[in-house]
Amino acid sequence: MFDYLKGKLVFKSPDRAVIEITGIGFSVAIPFSTYERLPDLNKEVKLSTFLHVKDDGLDLFGFITVEELKMFKSLLTVSKIGPKIAISILSSISFEQFREALENKNVDKLTGISGVGKKTAQRIILELSGKLVFDEEKGIKGTAGESSVINDAVNALMTLGFNKQESIDAIKETGIEITEETKVEELIKESLKRLRT
Questions:
Q1: Of 1, 98, 116, 179, which shows the fewest CB atoms inside 10 Å?
Q2: Is pLDDT of 143 > 90?
């Protein structure tokens, strides 16, 4: 029903945000990882959303990145995992850390999360291992020439000590239209401004 919400951020807390769109305030449950990256109040924000239908109502969940939304949806496919535990997991570890925990079958990494016991952690690993694939460059892929510009910028940022996902997110946030003629130096310069704020 809702793919995303884009509007003015009028309230934020570690577990909830309110976005005003044409005079209507949408209350959205969010993980802490999204809260950390929200803009100041009264600034525009865009959240990818998931509508959870219950017998007694509707709950709207929001995420600052598509990757967080993918992780949330994947967790909901695990038996006995509901939105509350899924949000708790998202609030505790990044999707890169989560994927690593799955790949390495690291039960201890997951049991350190509130609401996740050993059996739940084992079930998550069993049901999602090998199935959870994140397209980290979604939204910035293009032609071979455009991809080369992106890859060069990402590699340069990683050389400066930033991880791959941070670099990709920063490139997206520049808003620069990437073509084969885009200067890698300009892309790196603008990305660094966001990474160092």
A1: 1
A2: no
Residues 6+ apart with CB under 8 A from 151: none
34's enclosing H/E stretch is helix 32-35
Q: Cα(24)–Cα(27) distance, rounded to whole angstroms? A: 10
| CATH fold match for the domains 4-63 and 66-128 | no
**Partners of 54 in the β-ladder:** 57
- Within 8 A by CB and 6+ apart from 188, the residues are 153, 156, 157
User: What is the DSSP secondary structure assignment for residue 137, as one 8-state letter?
Assistant: T
Domain ranges of the chain: 4-63, 66-128, 144-195
Distance CA 69, CA 63 (A): 6
For residue 45, list its beta bridge partners: 7
For residue 7, the number of C-alpha atoms closer than 13 Å in the C-beta half-sphere is 17
Three-class DSSP category at 136: coil
Q: Which residue in 87, 72, 75, 80 sits closest to 31, CA to CA?
A: 87
What CATH number labels 66-128?
Answer: 1.10.150.20
Q: What is the DSSP letter of 85?
A: H
Q: What share of the chain is helix, strand, coil (3-state, %, to 5)?
A: 45, 20, 35
Q: What pLDDT band is residue 74 in, cutting at 50, 70 and 90? A: confident
Query: How far from chain centre, in Å, is Cα 8?
Result: 20
Strand partners, 19: 9, 26
> Does residue 32 register a pLDDT over 50?
yes
